[in-house]
Specification:
transmembrane helix
Length: 413
């Protein structure tokens, strides 16, 4: 197995995902609950679209660096680590500037296409760039061994989000969506500043060294496309519904997504904290495949029930303006279950083989193209609604399940 897969940084990252993901997830969900209860349906729809649209600028900012940085730092001397960190921060700064320029150029056309405003597009860009910066410096801090500092910053960020939302409601009564979005941007920027303070000691000047630049470029050839299309698969349904549906549908879809998929993401964080270290320690890929084969039946029984229950509970928390139909909730539970299991299987394959990452990149491109065609046809024909969109995404996850099984047979040997 490669030195990358054996690195302690990879094991530390699993702990970071568990602790940090839980903190940020709770904070953002609390913010969503406050928005849903205190703002209008239209404002909640706008806020949900800001979160979805921000991922476009997130991927422009990170470009796979959040995956490459911990791997580049594994096993390096303190001097080399400082140079690598300085190089990564320099590249991130350049990408952030480029993302900002793109936001200014496309703000008006994108706002028109998605029935939004220029302010919404620019706010989404600000949040995406800020969270991209946060993702990279967070992982750099973790790779330096500052897990405690990372956990503290994540909890502080969640406190800023929840506290800012509470103050906004108490002071303004019924704040608009941009007040809540601004709170999320501020919290991300506070986190970035804290992480940069953690990294300041021992970091070389922000300029790209020749060796680090070549390594980053080589890694980005595979990781950046995977990141782009993975994010596209998570958010393309929301773009389609925003274009073809109305505010009430979009707000309800955001409520469903918060109920089932938010818990699915947290389940992935928790289970990855088990799968990744087990994958690293396993003597062979066959052992990994055996562990997965034992876990999948349990997950197929436990996850759907937990997702249905969590979806119903979450919609109750969001307020009386949103309902939870069992039929639609069940479809979302199936989607979330398949998504969780597929991510775990894909993670195990990628941890054992870089060829699996290349294969997954190609599959993600194909899945995104199919999703665009299917959901685009629904928009054009005026037949887009919540159950149909969810069924399309379930069908795509079933195809991904077939791909993950094939990858496991090929790479977990």
């Amino acid at each position: 197995m490669s030195e990358v897969a054996q690195s302690a940084a990879l094991r530390r990252m699993s702990l970071l995902s568990l602790v940090g993901g839980a903190a940020s997830g709770v904070g953002m969900f609390a913010l969503s609950a406050v928005v849903a209860r205190s703002a209008s349906t239209s404002d909640f729809a706008d806020f949900g679209f800001v979160l979805a649209l921000s991922q476009v600028w997130f991927i422009l900012t990170v470009a796979g660096l959040e995956l490459a940085a911990p791997r580049l730092l594994a096993g390096r001397s303190p001097e080399d680590r400082g140079v690598i960190v300085g190089s990564v921060l320099a590249v991130t700064a350049a990408l952030a500037v480029g993302a900002g320029v793109v936001a200014l150029l496309v703000a008006d056309p994108l706002a028109g296409a998605t029935r939004s405003t220029r302010v919404l597009v620019l706010m989404a860009a600000a949040f995406g760039v800020a969270t991209g910066w946060r993702a990279i410096v967070e992982r750099l801090s973790a790779a330096h061994g500052r897990i405690g500092a990372v956990a503290a910053v994540k909890f502080a960020e969640a406190a800023v989000i929840v506290g800012g939302a509470a103050v906004a409601v108490l002071v303004l009564g019924r704040p608009t969506w941009n007040v809540f979005a601004g709170t999320a941007v501020l919290a991300a920027l506070v986190a970035v500043g804290a992480y940069l303070a953690v990294l300041h000691r021992g970091t070389a000047p922000w300029r790209v060294s020749a060796g680090t630049g070549r390594q980053l470029l080589a890694f980005a050839r595979y990781s950046a496309p995977t990141t782009v299309f993975a994010v596209a698969m998570m958010y393309i349904d929301k773009f389609a519904l925003r274009i073809g549906g109305d505010d009430a549908q979009y707000a309800q879809y955001t409520a469903y997504f918060s109920g089932s998929l938010l818990l699915a993401v947290q389940a992935v964080f928790v289970l990855q904290s088990i799968v990744l270290p087990a994958t690293v320690r396993a003597a062979s890929g066959v052992d990994v495949r055996r562990h997965l084969r034992r876990a999948v039946p349990v997950l197929l029984l436990a996850l759907p029930l937990s997702f249905v229950c969590s979806g119903w509970l979450v919609v109750q928390v969001l307020g009386p303006k949103y309902h939870y139909v069992l039929g639609e909730g069940a479809v979302f539970a199936v989607w979330a279950t398949l998504y969780t299991i597929n991510i775990l299987g894909m993670t195990a394959c990628v941890a054992r083989s870089s060829r699996a990452m290349r294969q997954e990149s190609i599959v993600l491109v194909a899945r995104t193209a199919v999703a665009v065609l299917a959901l685009g046809a629904l928009v054009v024909t005026g037949r887009i609604d919540i159950p149909t969109v969810a069924l399309v995404m379930v069908a795509l996850e079933l195809c991904e399940s077939v791909n993950v099984i094939a990858m496991a047979r090929r790479h977990l040997v």
